[in-house]
Structures are given as C-alpha cells and as structure tokens.
Amino acid sequence: MFAKTAMVAVTTVLLLGSAFANDPIEGNWLTQYGQTAAIAPCGGGFYCVTLKTGKYAGSQIGSLKNMGTQYEGKVTDPARQKTYSGKATITGDVMKMSGCVLGGLICRARVWNRKP
Length: 116
Prior knowledge:
Number of helices: 1
Largest sheet: 8 strands, antiparallel, barrel
Oligomer: single chain
C-alpha cells in the first residue's frame, strides 16, 4: 500500500512540475518580420519587449508576466500604435505570441524564434 501511495505522490509532483514549468522568456528573439526584439525584466515581475532593429527600433512593444504555464500582459503593434491583451508560450527556442481584442474574440498570433 505504501509503495502505491508513494508512486502516486511522485507522479503527481512530476506532472504538476511540468504543468507550471516554462522556458525562460529573457533574451533576443527574431520576429516574424526579421527584426530583433529583446526581452528583459523591467520590474514588478514583468518582462518588457523592446525592438532592437528595424523601423521601430527602441520602441517598447510589450510587457508580459509569468503566469505559470504562459506569459500574459500587453502587446503593442508599433505601426498602428494600438495595444492589445497578449499571451505568449515558449517551447524551446520558439515563442508563440498572440494579441487579442474584445475579450479574446479577435486574436492575431505570431511565432518568434530565439536568436543564438
């Protein structure tokens, strides 16, 4: 009986650990348009997204907070100067980011790749 209980406990811990684990967001990312965006801590548990290259270099285009299995916050389209609710998930060197309006009814997704 003890062995069975111990096995269940270990399995639960492993599953919960993977449910709350995510890859780090910090670093340089290649956007869908070939620009470089840097993501770094900026206070209050948030990570700020700043374009480093391209027409809008120097513009902060987002702030995201680690919420366990994903990052959530705000993202800005620099061309339109509109800010949206944003989410990002990271798997290895790939980040899937989305910005939504109307409570998530209309969303646009992008895929960025981590720069070496």
